[in-house]
TrEMBL record:
PANTHER family: LEUCINE-SPECIFIC-BINDING PROTEIN, PERIPLASMIC BINDING PROTEIN OF ABC TRANSPORTER FOR NATURAL AMINO ACIDS. Residues 1-20 form the signal peptide. Belongs to the leucine-binding protein family. Keywords: Amino-acid transport, Signal, Transport. It comes from Psychromarinibacter halotolerans. Gene3D superfamilies: 3.40.50.2300. This is Substrate-binding domain-containing protein. The keyword Transport applies.
Length: 390
C-alpha cells in the first residue's frame, strides 16, 4: 500500500507546476560554413539568459531548458527540425537560425504551430518583410539597418559606388536596401555584381567592376557585402583597385574576418557590433564574463545571441506567461529592453528590433592582428529611418 501511495504522490509531483520547464529551442547551423557564427550565437544566447535571470536560469522559479537543433544550413532541414522542436519537444519559443535562406523556410512553421520564432542572426529584409508573419520577431539587425548605416557612412554628393555580394537572399536583399538608402545621400550606385556563395576566384567579377567604374570621375568605392568564408576583400585589394581610383569599403564582421581589414587602414563603414565600442553595463558584463570563460572578447554574433536571450526573459516576465503565445506577442510589440548594444525595441508593425549601429574607421593597433573598427559616431534608433518592408 505504501508503494502505491508513493507512486501516486510522485505522479502528482511530476504533474505539478514546480516541475514545469520553460523550453527554448535554439535552431541554428551548428555545422556548415557558418558554424563560427552559430557558436557565437549560442554562447551569447546562454549568456543572455543567464544575465537576465541573475544567474539562476529560472523565471518565477521555473527552470529554463535550452534544446539545440542543427539546421546544417539546409532550408529543408531547418524547416523539419523547427517543426520537431515545436511538435515533439513542445518548445514554447524558438531562436535562430544563422542563414537567411534557412530562416525563410522556417517562417511558415512558426505560423503553423502558432509559436514564436525569434530570428537571430539571419539578416534578409524579407524575414520581417514580404515573408513575415505575426509569430516572427527579430533581435538581429536586418539588411536595411546594415544598408542605411553603411550608406550614411559611405555616401555623399559626387560619390559613385559599385557593390559585390553573394547571390542569395542575404546579398540581394542587402544590395537592394543599400541602393535605396544610398540615393538619399546623393551618391550613385553604378554597378551590381553577384557571385555564388562558394566563390573563391574573384578575378572575373573584379574586372567587370573595374570596367564599369574605370572611366567614372570623382570618388569611387566598392562596397562588399559578404558572409562566411572566402571573403573577397583581400583578393580584390591584391588586384590594386586604386589604379582605377576605387576604394574598398565594407561593413563590420567577426574578429576572424577583421584580419583582412588590417590591409586597409582608414577604410570606413558601419558595423553592428565590436566589443570595445558600446559603453553600457550589459556590454561591460558580457566582455568581462566572456574573457574570463573563453579567453577571448565577445564577437559579432555573441552580442546578438545575448540580446535574444535577454529579450526572451523580459518578454516572459512582462507577459506573465511562457505558454500563451498571444500574451507574449502583445507583450513584445513595442517592448524595450537593454542589450549589449544599449537600448533595443521591437517595432510593433513588423517585430523588427530597432537598435544602434556604429560608423567606424579601420585602424591598425599594436597587439592586435586585425584592423580595429574605431568608432566615428553612433547611429541611434532615431538616426535611421528603417523602412517597414511588409
Amino acid at each position: 500500500m505504501r508503494k502505491i501511495l508513493a507512486a501516486g504522490s510522485m505522479a502528482l509531483l511530476l504533474a505539478s507546476p514546480a516541475f514545469a520547464e520553460i523550453r527554448i529551442a535554439h535552431v541554428y547551423g551548428k555545422t556548415g560554413a557558418l558554424e563560427a557564427y552559430a557558436e557565437q550565437s549560442h554562447i551569447g544566447l546562454m549568456l543572455g539568459l543567464e544575465y537576465a535571470t541573475g544567474g539562476t536560469m529560472e523565471i518565477d522559479g521555473e527552470p529554463i531548458v535550452v534544446i539545440e537543433k542543427d539546421t546544417q544550413l539546409k532550408p529543408d532541414v531547418g524547416k523539419a527540425v523547427l517543426a520537431e522542436a515545436y511538435g515533439d519537444d513542445d518548445a514554447h519559443i524558438a531562436v535562430g537560425p544563422v542563414s537567411s535562406g534557412v530562416a525563410l523556410a522556417m517562417l511558415p512553421v512558426a505560423e503553423e504551430y502558432e509559436r514564436l520564432l525569434i530570428v537571430e542572426p539571419a539578416v534578409a529584409d524579407s524575414i520581417t518583410g514580404a515573408n513575415w508573419n505575426r509569430y516572427i520577431f527579430r533581435t538581429g539587425r536586418n539588411s536595411s539597418q546594415d544598408a542605411i548605416a553603411n550608406a550614411v557612412a559611405l555616401g555623399g554628393d559626387g560619390v559613385t559606388v559599385a557593390t559585390l555580394a553573394q547571390d542569395y537572399a542575404f546579398g540581394r536583399d542587402g544590395v537592394a536596401a543599400f541602393k535605396t538608402a544610398l540615393e538619399a545621400t546623393g551618391a550613385t550606385l553604378a554597378h551590381e555584381e553577384y557571385v555564388p556563395t562558394d566563390t573563391t576566384d574573384f578575378t572575373a567579377a573584379a574586372e567587370r567592376i573595374f570596367n564599369a567604374m574605370g572611366d567614372i570621375e570623382g570618388e569611387k568605392k566598392l562596397f562588399i557585402i559578404w558572409a562566411g568564408g572566402g571573403n573577397p576583400m583581400s583578393k580584390i585589394n591584391a588586384m590594386d583597385p586604386s589604379r582605377f581610383g576605387i576604394e574598398i569599403a565594407t561593413g563590420g564582421n567577426i574578429l576572424a574576418a577583421l584580419t583582412a581589414y588590417k590591409e586597409l587602414p582608414g577604410m570606413e563603414g558601419a558595423t553592428y557590433y565590436y566589443y570595445e565600442i558600446p559603453d553600457n553595463d550589459v556590454n561591460d558584463w558580457l566582455v568581462t564574463e566572456h574573457m574570463e570563460r573563453h579567453g577571448t572578447p565577445p564577437d559579432f554574433f555573441t552580442a546578438g545571441g545575448m540580446a535574444a536571450g535577454i529579450a526572451i526573459v523580459e518578454a516572459i516576465k512582462k507577459a506573465g506567461t511562457y505558454e500563451d503565445t498571444e500574451a507574449l506577442i502583445e507583450a513584445m510589440e513595442g517592448m524595450e529592453w537593454d542589450g549589449p548594444k544599449g537600448p533595443m525595441m521591437f517595432r510593433a508593425e513588423d517585430h523588427q528590433a530597432l537598435q544602434t549601429m556604429y560608423h567606424f574607421v579601420t585602424e591598425v593597433q599594436d597587439g592586435k592582428d586585425y584592423g580595429v573598427p574605431v568608432l566615428v559616431r553612433e547611429l541611434g534608433i532615431e538616426d535611421m529611418d528603417i523602412p517597414i518592408n511588409n
